Automatic annotation (TrEMBL):
Compartments, record wording: Membrane
Organism of provenance: Sapayoa aenigma (broad-billed sapayoa)
InterPro entries: EMP70 (IPR004240), MFS_trans_sf (IPR036259)
The protein's name in its UniProt record: Transmembrane 9 superfamily member
TM regions (residue ranges): 221-243, 284-311, 317-342, 354-377, 383-413, 444-467, 473-501, 513-532, 544-561
UniProt cross-references to PANTHER family, sorted A to Z: TRANSMEMBRANE 9 SUPERFAMILY MEMBER 2, TRANSMEMBRANE 9 SUPERFAMILY PROTEIN
Length: 562
């Protein structure tokens, strides 16, 4: 973007999470001194000559960004500079960003932020917010030696057509740029800043006013509670069915043991000699189980720390950094679980197993991520990850995660294979004709519905935080939903496994993994629905990026739920 640049200032350093999320912080040319009021101070003037192709391209890009409602995101003392405005029901919404400008359509309809000013009325015209009124709220510390602390920073975006850019007056008509503008276009950027003492806001709770005004917060609370009640009810039902059915079956078997004439077995007791028969593609299943365990523990620990407040929005990039570091350090459980299961499946290619655990799933994620990054590089985006960071990620993977996976696998293979309580028959049992409900696919499809039901509300807010720049901070509820998701996945899988074992189908290993893993497919369907219904993404590159990153999330979620 061709905005005013801060000359000679170094960019602040970012942590791994910020770089991965594309949160690049640029130094600002807006200068102010504490408690010194500034009025209509000039920053710079940009001139565009539409006869020059380079200038025309810059101006067209600026227009396009206004049309797509691109936003400025400013930070002062690690606090987002917010634009607060009234919404329906007398609520006040504070947005941690403000638009570059807005557009009045050819039929005179104001789009996005153009509704805030009645002077924005020219048809087929762009209005750029080239002036900001910044208000800094501070809290004086009781110990005078420490001075004051910033507790809020708010601004009001405005548009002024400065006739004398060298001596701006910040009044008069707004800065309009006609869609068919020709000749020379001058945009002068200015700002005013004022300071106000705010005794009611403590420094520790300075983020509250932003978080409290997040859209649909009250709906979110209600929805989460509603979701929790439904999920707890479903969990209770599943547990009750399991206990009652098993109790009834066991009672029936015990009764049969006491009667001499009833010799024939039925139901799941028939397949006891085949239940521990190694699954087909046992290598792949063990690798998935290892990677899934790694992701499960990583998610649990990350959310636990987030609940304790270590990974709040104030610590930029902390969530992603924590997740990546934990994933790297949790190579040992992945290797151990994969090795234990592979050995219990009777596998002997332990080297292949370790290598696949180390490289298969992380490799797919990295390849997808790398392709997305190439697209970002090609588009010249600031969100593109520098080559050095990619090398650092590879170093973490190869130098820490892979050796730890090998260590885990070593201990896994060293231990004796998991002993099965019954001996497997030499000849596989014939599986009878299955009804529609006990066939693999319908069972797997049904199995994913229940876990998805308990996360889709949270999913909406998480996708909003990723794609719509809204802050996500309800980690307590997310942790609760995470626990419930784990319980629901387990119970749904146990229930469906029990039903198809009763139908004398003993191929349960893959089905148990895919039953809850199918939740990821519903996640994908929901992400596609979200893309078409909630986002206004245009351009091939942006669409590829959305679905590329979504596929990474879907794969991780598949391994996690499975």
């Amino acid at each position: 973007f061709d905005f005013c640049q801060a000359e000679g200032k170094k960019r602040p350093s970012e942590n791994l999470g910020q770089v991965l999320f594309g949160e690049r912080i640029e130094p600002s040319p807006y200068r102010f001194t504490f408690n010194k009021k500034e009025t209509c101070k000039s920053v710079c003037t940009k001139t565009y000559d539409t006869t020059k192709p380079d200038d025309k391209q810059k101006l067209d890009f600026l227009k396009k960004s206004m049309l797509l409602n691109y936003q400025h995101h400013w930070i002062v003392d690690n606090m987002p500079v917010t634009w607060c405005y009234d919404v329906e029901d007398g609520q006040r919404f504070c947005n941690p960003g403000f638009p570059i400008g807005c557009y009045i359509t050819e039929d005179g309809r104001p789009k996005d932020a153009c509704v805030i000013n009645s002077e924005f009325h020219e048809k087929d015209t762009f209005y750029i917010f080239n002036h900001v009124d910044i208000k800094i709220y501070y809290h004086v510390v009781e110990n005078e030696a420490l001075g004051a602390r910033l507790v809020a920073a708010k601004l009001e975006p405005k548009s002024y057509k400065h006739t004398h850019p060298d001596n701006p007056d910040c009044s008069g008509v707004p800065m309009d740029i006609s869609n068919k503008a020709s000749g020379e276009v001058k945009i002068a950027y200015t700002y005013s800043v004022s300071f106000q003492e705010e005794k009611s806001i403590r420094w520790a709770s300075r983020w509250d006013y932003i978080l409290e005004s997040m859209p649909h917060t009250h709906i979110q609370w209600f929805s989460i509670m509603n979701s929790l009640v439904i999920v707890l009810f479903l969990s209770g039902m599943v547990a009750m069915i399991m206990l009652r059915t098993l109790h009834k079956d066991i009672a029936r078997y015990n009764q049969m043991d006491s009667t001499e004439d009833a010799q024939e077995e039925f139901g799941w007791k028939l397949v006891h000699g085949d239940i521990f028969r190694p699954p087909r593609k046992g290598m792949l299943l063990s690798v998935f189980l290892g990677s899934g365990t790694q992701i499960l523990i990583m998610t649990f620990v990350t959310l636990f720390f987030a609940c304790l407040g270590f990974l709040s929005p104030a610590n930029r990039g902390a969530l992603m950094t924590c997740a990546v570091v934990l994933w790297v350090l949790l190579g040992t459980p992945a290797g151990y679980v994969a090795a234990r299961f592979y050995k219990s499946f009777g596998g002997e290619k332990w080297k292949t197993n370790v290598l696949l655990t180390s490289f298969l799933c992380p490799g797919i994620v990295f390849a997808d991520f790398f392709i997305m990054n190439l697209i970002l590089w090609g588009e010249g985006s600031s969100a593109a990850i520098p080559f050095g960071t990619l090398v650092a990620i590879l170093a973490l993977w190869f130098c820490i995660s892979v050796p730890l996976t090998f260590i885990g696998a070593y201990f896994g293979f060293k231990k004796n294979a998991i002993e099965h309580p019954v001996r497997t028959n030499q000849i596989p049992r014939q599986i009878p004709e299955q009804s529609f409900y006990t066939k693999p696919l319908p069972g797997i499809i049904m199995g994913g519905i229940l876990p998805f039901g308990c996360i889709f509300i949270q999913l909406f807010f998480i996708l909003n935080s990723i794609w719509s720049h809204q802050m996500y901070y309800m980690f307590g509820f997310l942790f609760l939903v995470f626990i419930i998701l784990v319980i629901t996945c387990s119970e749904a899988t146990i229930l469906l496994c029990y039903f198809h074992l009763c139908a004398e189908d003993y191929h349960w290993q893959w089905r148990s993994f895919l039953t809850s893993g199918f939740t990821a497919v519903y996640f994908l369907i929901y992400a596609i629905h979200y893309f078409f219904s909630k986002l206004q993404i245009t351009g091939t590159a942006s669409t590829i990026l959305y679905f590329g990153y979504t596929m990474i999330m879907v794969l991780i979620f598949f391994l996690f739920t499975g």
